[in-house]
Amino acid sequence: MNHLGFEMEKVKIGSFDFTCCEGCQLQLANKESTLPDFLALLDIRNFREISSERLDDYDIALVEGSITRPDEIERLKAIRAKAKVLIAFGTCACFGGVNSLKNRIPQEEAIREVYDNKAVETMPSMKISDVVQVDHSIPGCPVSKDEVEQILVGIVTRSQVSLPTYPVCVDCKQQLNTCLFDLGELCLGPITRAGCNAVCTTGKSACLGCRGPAEELNMPAFFELVKDRALSLDDLHEMLAFYNAFEPFATDET
Amino acid sequence: MKRDYSLDIHHLTRVEGHADIQITVRDGQLVDARWAIVETPRFFEVMLKGMSAERVPFLTSRICGICSISHSLASIRAVERAMDIVPPIAAEKTRLLAMHGETLQSHALHLFFLIAPDFAGTSSVLPLIQSHPDLVRAGLQLKELGNEISTVTTGRCTHPVSLVVGGLSKAPDKERLLQLRTMIQERKPALETTCSFFHTLTIPAFSRETEFISLSNGSTYPSIGGRLVSSDGVNLEENDYLLMTNEYTQEFSTSKFTRLSRQSSAAGALARFNNNYDLLHPKAKEVAESFGLQPVCHNPFMNNIAQLVECVHILEDAGDLVNSLLDSDLSEIKTPYTPKAGIATGAVEAPRGVLYHHIEIDEQGKVAKADCIIPTTQNNGNIHDDLRALVEQALREGKKDGEITKLCEMVVRSYDPCISCSVH
């Protein structure tokens, strides 16, 4: 690959999925008009969903999904041991994601509910960093391909890699959207990390916080705002729990 | 020839999710053939309990990264039927167009990324970028068109944003609909390139009679809602989905199996084609004829050709829907409602076949009970039985071990299984 006139080696990459919908790795195959150029940057060593090659030497491991079964812990540790850089890829990997909604009840009860008496192994959903060290996180349900490209190129060129620190509200205002609070609706845009181009609120759909908390967020003030507007706190708790991304803050009600 | 053969494919590649194929042949006799799904279960039925009905489609869309629009719309249909909500016509048309976008994207992904390498003898689509540039460009153009249709209609191509109970949260932008109309026209040659490529391939000769399951409404090729029908003559109302599926568990699979009139049955493009042939666009019928595909076809490998035929139908029908939306008043897109208790099933034709969401809502407007039955679940039994019949046929024909392995992988891929979806 050629970057700013310098010849560089292609980056050896593996893409791995655990408990998830595989929607994040599917984003890698989107933005079709620039896909051949994007693929030209990569030496895909292991990517079961699109390739029968299974090679074990990769520098970067993209890890999608949350961990919900003992065998997944072993598989994840083996990937960590081989990867120089491990990226938690998507909301399930970064926070446990929607899978964490089953953590509310005993796992035996969940198994009985879905499988009756069949023996099935499962455990409460864990994020990747609960099991192994994570070098970078790319949140999003699904991830944004633009951000993925930026971060991968950043890692390869050893540039600084960072996520926006400000909330979705900033992106949303730039899109000149009417604030959903002004339409009488709840939205997690004021407390959620930006970087998604406010795609949900631009579609007039509330932000459910898939990218996790923005930095320097003022949770008490946000709860006050919700109360001032006479919006439902029950609803707010349902939204905060949706992706498990606000777990430390979810009961921060003052 | 008396011989031993065993095949144990761990985590089959180029399918969505984790599953194994296990075949054992001893003294020339097939002992066992298994389609064993080992995917980790996610328990969406448990996650849904207690959730506000309006938020259900945002959760169920996360069942699948490929067919999130189908999941969203199956839930929306269930909730709207349970609460007696009738969405505006413009919203219904937009939803149909969104379904087309998703199916086109999904079929293109399957035909180019997942199965074309089998026919080209490569491990992935990547070497084809060099060896078959025109074909890969055509595939990407079709996939991009599918994603663009989904984005214009739902706000995003994976995990839709503006599909909501009651209609849409935001209408599609007319400027973008105009661009879409041009894009649909411009991409038709890509479909011709694809057809030419598939004409050069030899589809494996294999046939096993089975029962085909699909939706049917008698007036249009099925998409959202309708009667539940089978090629063996079953014809039921949407809420009778349990009679249609009869789910059961297998000790070797975390995904359930279903059965109807026979031990196994099939859903998906070929099932829709077989049950609704008369309702296809004439151009789609022409393409089917050029491949010798006629209803009722029992060769599972022809599911890939049925997908291609559906792509032709979609490009024609999507163009008509875009024109109709351009002529529509898009100010009325959502029917206001107050949540209330109710029970209903929503069925849609996801890319891989009939998808059922059954939802019971309590007085507070929260989910009391949910049940999702996935197309791949309905294909598990057929895949399992096909493997057995296919290996027996291959043994009779004296095929080499490597050829049998490849055929087994290919027959599974021909169903385009969405394994993580099936173990939701």
How would you describe this structure to a colleague?
- The complex is a heterodimer of chains A (254) and B (424).
- Chain A has 254 residues and is α/β, with parallel strands linked by helices.
- Chain A has 10 helices and 7 strands.
- Chain A has helices at residues 23-27, 35-40, 70-82, 91-95, 107-115, 145-156, 168-174, 199-202, 219-228, 233-241, and strands at residues 2-3, 6-7, 11-17, 42-47, 60-64, 85-89, 136-138.
- Chain A is globular, with a radius of gyration of 20 Å.
- The longest helix of chain B has 32 residues, at 89-120.
- In chain B, strand 2 (19-26) and strand 3 form a beta hairpin.
- Chain B is globular.
- Chain B has one domain (44-422): Cytochrome-c3 Hydrogenase, chain B (Orthogonal Bundle), CATH 1.10.645.
- Classes of the chains: A alpha/beta (254), B alpha+beta (424).
Index terms:
heterodimer; A: 254 residues; alpha/beta; Rossmann fold; 2 domains; five-stranded parallel sheet; 10 helices; 7 strands; B: 424 residues; Cytochrome-c3 Hydrogenase, chain B; four-stranded mixed sheet; three-stranded antiparallel sheet; 12 strands; 15% strand
